[in-house]
Amino acid sequence: MGPLAVNEIISENTNLFLAFIIGIAFGFVLESCGFSSSRKLAGVFYGYDMVVLKVFFTGAITAMLGLLLFSLFGWIDLSMVYVNPLYLPSAITGGIIMGAGFILGGYCPGTSFCGASIGKIDAMIFIIGLFLGVIIFALGYDLWDGHYMAGFKGEPKISTALHLSDGVFALLVVIIALAMFWVAELAEKKFAREEY
Amino acid sequence: MEEKEVKKTVSTKYLNPYLGGVLLGLVLLAANFVAGRGLGASGAVKSVVVSATTALAPSSEEKSGFIKEFRESHQGNPLKTWLVFQMAGVIVGGFLSGAIAGRLKLKIEHSPKITSRKRLIFALLGGILFGFGSQLGRGCTSGAALSGMAVLSLGGFVTMMAIFGTGYALAYFFRKNWI
Questions:
Q1: Position A195 pLDDT exceeds 70
Q2: Each residue of B67-120: pLDDT tens digit?
Q3: What is the 3-state secondary structure (H, E, C) of A104-159?
Q4: Which of A54, A61, A103 to mutate to test the interface with B (most CBs of B within 10 A)?
Q5: A107: phi > 0 → left, psi -120 to 50 → alpha, else beta; which?
Q6: How far, in Å, are A154, A156, A174, A180, B154 from residue A162 at the CA level?
Q7: Can you give the three-state secondary structure of chain A, one letter per residue?
Q8: How many CB pairs (< 8 A) connect A and B?
């Protein structure tokens, strides 16, 4: 049955319409959790507010288990679901540059649009930066082309790399996440700070 | 005592993070079920940039390998892509949530230890780095880290570890901006 668009059960335009609806839900949930506030987001790096870790991992686990169940019930063909390709060197350097952007700017791309939507001027400036960053990447493409395309490893799954079944690996992720939630609750008590 | 009560009301204005996480997961599941792909954000910025450069400088298409690569994998209007529609929705959804919760307000959010001007300069620099890094890393916190984790992608996991690892490694040096 699923994915609906890939199996041509819904038309291209319906798919785009649903993208808009899914986007509304995405933005609504992010804002409701406080992801429109850079100081709340940055809390994850100092321990005073671990909302990013809690929402992020609960979200990842829910979707991961949901996909495995959907696959088990025959509702979705997981081989048709996009798995990010791995180009090892650029996955690491790109992540390092993004991490620096996160601690300087306090937002990531999705949350900056969320912050801007409720009037955060710092988020709007961050978005201008995002555009400049992408333009710089496009203009200088020939300079980092080699690095960008190096070390292609296909579309590997972590479970396959560890020689585990998807289900066993998923259980492992859930256990690790529960341990992290416990640490996060402790951290918030230890580094408690006035609300802003 | 009184202060404690005020604190409590303030901190309950946001959704419980675990409930929020489950809802976020369901949205991500819906995206995969409908479109066979996860959520994203930086890809929409890329689409707009490609669209604008093609409109302003048509010859740039041949010059930049980056735009050529995008053109080869996306047919038709670069603005008519899944992520552009999804990000338009994010703006609407964020606004609706903010309106319902009474959080709509034009303001520059920053630590009392720094000025608004400093906050904006850092926001711009952070945005530039994140925009650049998201292209090099083929996706940001949404597209690579979150959506990647949901499909057990090793690539998404590597990028996620690099993002958060760097954030923690640099946190000490920028603490005045946040604490």
A1: no
A2: 777 877 777 788 899 999 999 999 999 999 999 999 999 999 999 999 999 999
A3: HHCCCHHHHHHHHHCCEHHHHHHHHHHHHHHHHHHHCHHHHHHHHHCCECCCCEHH
A4: A103
A5: beta
A6: 16, 11, 16, 21, 10
A7: CECCCCCCCCCHHHHHHHHHHHHHHHHHHHHHCCCCCHHHHHHHHCCCCCHHHHHHHHHHHHHHHHHHHHHHCCCECHHHCCCCCCEHHHHHHHHHHHHHHHHHHCCCHHHHHHHHHCCEHHHHHHHHHHHHHHHHHHHCHHHHHHHHHCCECCCCEHHHHCCCCHHHHHHHHHHHHHHHHHHHHHHHHHCCCCCC
A8: 537
d(CA A43, CA A112): 16
Q: 3-state class of B107 per DSSP?
A: strand
Q: Which residues contact B127 (CB under 8 A, 6 or more apart)?
A: A101, A105, A107, A112, A125, A126, A127, A128, A129, A130, A131, A132, A133
**Helix axes A121-139 and A109-117, enclosed angle (nearest 10):** 140
- The first and second tokens of residue B170, run together, are 């640099």
Angle (CA) A59 B97 A40, round 5°: 60
Alpha-carbon span B51 to B47, nearest angstrom: 6
ipTM over 0.90: yes
Q: Per-residue pLDDT tens for A104-139? A: 999 999 999 999 999 999 999 999 999 999 999 999
User: CA B39, CA B86: separation in Å to the nearest integer?
Assistant: 8
CB-CB: which of A3, A57, A156 is closest to B34? Answer: A3
pTM: 0.93
CA distance A186 to chain B (A): 15
A84 neighbors B158 (Cβ within 8 angstroms)? no
